[in-house]
Amino acid sequence: MGKFENPSIPANNSEKPSESLISEFLKNNPELARIYNKHSVNPKINDSESGSNTRMQALTELAVAIKESLPDVQKGYVRLWRGNREGEVGHNPSYTNSLEGIALPFLSSYGGILSYVDVPEKEVEKYLSGGAPGAEFILPPNLVKDCEIVGFNSEEAAEIKKKASPLSEADEGPKDWSSI
Question: Is residue 163 included in any domain, yes or no?
Fold first, then answer.
């Protein structure tokens, strides 16, 4: 059994096994599973036993492994994260400073790719949005297009960005992006 795999447990009082949400998340994001397996100090992801608190602990542990796998944030910068939908990396301007609380859960539901942007501390407040107070930001296109993609080498990341396309009017949602 791999580091992030957990035994199945009964779901909803039935005899049918149910896979842990985090295990399923890592199975669907092999690039993050590789990071987790390599960088996790205490691999024990298991969110199937005690509900949301354990799930949050597992997301926090995964976030620590991801952060340890990346270059340090330069002095005077803040790292912002996005759990992207498939095909939108480098185009959607909504980012967050909460990897474990916002970006990873959205990535789990979107099924895309995790990206980040390092923004100068002096500029970050002007990008705050009306979403989660102090945690969500709407970035300008020049920063968004230069995002870094987590878990892929530079050639793979370039190909992913090349295949991504601008959001269509139907996908754009509110013009201020504050609800995304």
Answer: yes
Contact between 58 and 48 (Cβ < 8 Å): no
Output DSSP code: residue 127: G
> Tens of pLDDT along 100-116?
999 999 998 898 999 99
Whether residue 88 is found in the same domain as residue 159: yes
Condensed to tens digits (0 to 9), the pLDDT of residues 87-143 reads: 999 999 999 999 999 999 999 889 899 999 999 999 999 999 988 889 999 999 999
**Burial category of 162 from C-beta neighbours within 10 Å (exposed 0-12, middle 13-18, buried 19 and up):** exposed
Q: Looking at the structure, do residues 49 and 83 belong to the same domain, yes or no?
A: no
**Are 93 and 56 within one domain?**
no
Burial of 74 (0-12, 13-18, 19+ CB in 10 A): exposed
In order, the DSSP letters of 148-177 are EETTS-HHHHHHHHHH--PPPHHHH-STT-
Q: Model pTM? A: 0.75
Token pair in block for residue 98:
């909460």
Q: Structurally, how many domains does the chain consist of?
A: 2
Regarding whether 114 and 138 lie in a shared domain, the answer is: yes
Backbone angles phi, psi at 123, to 5 degrees: -105, -20
Alpha-carbon distance of 91 to 106, in angstroms, equals 16
Task: Judge contact between 32 and 40, C-beta under 8 A.
Answer: no
